[in-house]
Amino acid sequence: MESQVSNELIITFLPSEESAVCVITLGEKEIGRFPVKRQEDKATISSAFSAIAKQLGVRAVVKEKASGEEILWSPVKIGALTAKNRFAVLPMEGADAGKDGSLTAGCMERYHAYCAGGAAVICLEAVTLQYESRSRDRQLLFDVRDPQSRASWEAFIRSLKIQYPDTILIFQFHHAGETADPSFSRRVCVKPLPGFGGDVIDESYIEDYIRRQVETAEFLYGIGVDGVDLKLCHGYLGSQLLRPYNDRNWKYGGSWENRSRFAFETCEKIRSRIPDHHFLLGARVSMYEEMPGGQGHAGADSPYIDLKEPIALIQGLEQRGCDFFGETIGNASLYWENMAPDRSCAVNVYKHASMAKQMKEHLRTETIVIGAGMSVLGDGTENGLRGIEAEKSSLPAFGSSCIRDGGMDLIGLGRQSLADPELPRKLRDGRRKEIHWCRTCNLCSELEMRQQSIGCPVYRETYRTLLQKVRKEYGKPERIITGDGE
What are the C-alpha distances in Å from 89 to residues 157, 199, 419? Predict the structure, then answer.
């Protein structure tokens, strides 16, 4: 037995915080160790030391101790497409469009940075499809009925797909509804909500918006976009129609059949026009809003969370051709902390994980769920979570654990993508110490609240200077809310 062991050159790859470590042992004696910076270097090292072992007349044995994060680099099918890894950049508004909503150089640079950062899926931010009612003064617009808008978007998408052909681009539809800012746009609603209100819209308004979504999806399919997200979350128009509070007696309100009609009709019409599942169809869904009568609540005035309707929603959309769902909770105009946990309420990350798992348990195995709310986790050392080891509470460790457990399929990067769009690439290349971890200070959200271009003031001087200017004019806000026009 001893003779057999001493005749083995053992090449062992161990995980570490910074990168993998290669340990070389001959028998029981360690003869060297060194860092392995890149995943692809492992094959080269194994081959080189195997050749040395052959020259020495001993047998080479390659071993690898798993870190648990390997699943982050495993591909996964979404519809008929394949995501190269388990990271998705969530639809993060930049509010850096032209005054007319047109694409700007800054906006395009942002998306090139996301793509270069290595995430498998990039969700193009909450793009409004009409100029009249919008949440941000400089919100990105795509008007499918405007030839100039069509031309600029076609050129932009072409540039991304030529340079990043293996990146999946998802386009998120957006309509502000009651969260439109009345200082520069028209606020509309399905039923006036206290503190919001707006012009009450009718059936013809919704029917035209459904047509606009279908036209937009067809055009995007034709120019190479990989899919669309219908956005049924965070208190915007999709949520406003779905929530039990919409008990008005009309085609799109009252009963669940009526309140779900907008989502189901949109999905059916898009999938009937585009049966090709190389074009993905999905929706980001608030599983609950945490307001009486909100999405995911038991009745029009009920404060009690009841997931019956959200589950019926995702199952109905799945039956009508949806390939993926984005998990979320909350309403951006009411309780920011639910949607985007910070260190004072990091425990909300467990709510997000639980809702993603609820989705997975009520959908087909092949239907993809993108998790959210994990920017607060960072490297695990400062996230404020108790009762869990720091190394298990980091974003990569916690996210990969959720994926292994079947609780989600991809990790959604929100504020973390603003702090460092290169996180996936840095993790893959063993450059963990170079990652700019999101501090969830919500300074980016403060810029959004003040109708400024949105970015990370912690790591980017441009946004730090902008924040200083905003603070000088408005002072520091007591709380973060967006979309209520206050």
Answer: 16, 34, 12
pLDDT at residue 474 in the model: 93
DSSP lists the bridge partners of residue 87 as: 411
Amino acid identity of residue 464, one-letter, is R
Report the distance separating Cα 154 and Cα 102, nearest Å. 13
Q: Which of 464, 346, 360, 434 is nearest to 394 (CA)?
A: 346
Residues contacting 310, CB < 8 A, separation 6+:
285, 286, 287, 288, 295, 296
Confidence grade of residue 27 (pLDDT, cut at 50, 70, 90): confident
DSSP assignment of 433-471, as one string? GG--------HHHHHHHTT-----TTT-HHHHHHHHHHH
For every residue of 286-310, DSSP letters joined together read: ES--SSTT-TTBSSTT--SB-THHH
Instruction: Quote the CA–CA distance of 370 and 5 in Å, as a whole number.
Output: 46
Q: Are 80 and 321 in contact (CB under 8 A)?
A: no
Rounded distance between C-alpha atoms, residue 10 and residue 56, angstroms: 13
Taking the CB of residue 255, how many other CB atoms lie within 10 A of it? 10
Judged against a pLDDT cut of 80, whether residue 482 lies above it is answered with: no
Coil, helix or strand at residue 26 = strand
Q: Where are the beta strands (DSSP E) in 386-452?
A: 410-413
Chain position carrying tokens 């460790």: 397
